[in-house]
Amino acid sequence: MSKYVLIGSEGCGSVIVELAMREVQAEFELEEIPYLEPGPDRDRLLELNPLGQVPTLIMPDGSVMTESAAIILHLADAFPDQRFVPSSSDPQRPGFLRWLLYINSEIYPTTTFADDPDRWKISETRSQEYKDAIDQYRMELWANVEQVADDPYFLGERLSAVDFYIAVMRHWRPGKKAFAKALPKLNTIADNVSRLPQFESILKRNFPDS
Fold this sequence. Notes:
Residues 89-210 form the GST C-terminal domain. GO terms for molecular function: transferase activity. Pfam families: GST_N_2. Keywords: Transferase. The protein folds into 2 domains: 4-78, Glutaredoxin, CATH 3.40.30.10; 93-196, Glutathione S-transferase Yfyf (Class Pi), Chain A, domain 2. Helices cover 51% and strands 8% of the residues. It is built from 10 helices and 4 strands; from the N terminus they run βαβαββαααααααα. A 4-stranded mixed beta sheet has the order 2-1-3-4, covered by helices on one side. Strand 3 (56-58) and strand 4 (64-66) form a beta hairpin. Helix 1 runs parallel beside helix 3 (68-78), helix 1 (14-23) packs antiparallel against helix 10 (197-206) and helix 8 crosses helix 9. The longest helix is centred in the middle third of the chain and has 22 residues, at 127-148. The radius of gyration is 17 Å and the shape is globular.
């Protein structure tokens, strides 16, 4: 194998990694699957990633990487000319790492908390109340990112991987309109990313309203 294989699903976290791979012009093949649907694709995914989640990245040597932040940091090492992860000597690196991991550890998991209330033993009568509470909490978490965001991108003039997350995750619960209303700075950043030629087709394919 001489190239990466990115296993992903439309509109999911794999889009974040696809943006990063396009930015570094990595040679890769995208395998889009309905990752939650039972069948051969799901079975293969579970063999590669016990959590059955996307993105799952098969490396050129056949090994497997999971977790979008880990993949982002790997690509920064594998393509040293990239600029979306500040170098170890860059004064913006500590802030970048802080918010990259904040988005991944605090905000990202809430998308799964509300998707399947039955998994958490939430009764059917309370499931909507539970989803609404999670959505509100998610927006409160995003508000912390809004407070420190620069312009035109999160770090200022420099495009970073944090911008990839913002551009993709604004389409997730509670939806793009709610995101734009509550988080105008982050929404502008997402718009700026969506207009970049190298990303426009990817985001339009996954989110037609981009």
